[in-house]
């Protein structure tokens, strides 16, 4: 059995990240703020991937609580059943990233609160479950917040080839991941592998955007 | 009525110079599940009726499916 070890300092964790990523890239990741809209199979995996990559600030947004039916594909523990997803996910992330800045919002995103919720994020992930919600957020951000980089998803149900899941640049600031067509159905539900492939596409696109498009004062 | 050539979701299409709303309705799109771009710019939902498609337009209709 392991003895209780002291949690590494922020400097130690940062220098381990810099060793992997280089200081130049890690500085950009540390400065970035990403809003994750929806913390289901996509959002929970995106958040964990970005936190492990050393993204400095995450805003976790979902109105839902952890349910047993989520566990097949979402990054929660059984002991978190019933907890608000934003808080449960923040707790999971702090187990490996204790110094990350996390803001949690246990609310449903609507056209009325969208600007206030994601206004200060540089990058936005659309990680909703319901098609109408995906369309609402995407229309809102592209129309009213054209300076944001938005990475969304559509089509990742089932267990057929993961090779059909791609990332497509739709406009200069909007990227869409998924296969575009695999909808959830009664006999063809969401499973962890394809959902995680799609989430990884989204997280990877965010990282690429962060590194290529410098945030903050040095923005092009 | 004028027939124009536009590109919709990557395919060349010959259509009348109709509004985005008329096109979407005719094609059976579900209005609450889509995002429409024309020449890399979002077409706001409030403009679907007044936005007329012109020759050479490059249109993209993203139609979301559920799951996440």
Structural features, described:
The complex is a heterodimer of chains A (220) and B (68). Chain A is 38% helix and 16% strand. Chain A has 220 residues and is an alpha/beta fold. Chain A has one domain: NAD(P)-binding Rossmann-like Domain (Rossmann fold), CATH 3.40.50.720. In chain A, strands 3-2-1-4-5-7-6 form a seven-stranded mixed β-sheet, with helices on both faces. The radius of gyration of chain A is 17 Å and the shape is globular. Chain B is mostly beta strands and 68 residues long. Chain B has one domain (3-63): Ubiquitin-like (UB roll). In chain B, 12% of the residues lie in helices and 37% in strands. A five-stranded mixed β-sheet of chain B has the order 2-1-5-3-4, with no helix packed on it.
Key phrases:
heterodimer, A: 220 residues, alpha/beta, Rossmann fold, seven-stranded mixed sheet, 7 helices, 7 strands, 38% helix, B: 68 residues, mainly beta, Ubiquitin-like (UB roll), five-stranded mixed sheet, 1 helix, 5 strands, 37% strand, globular
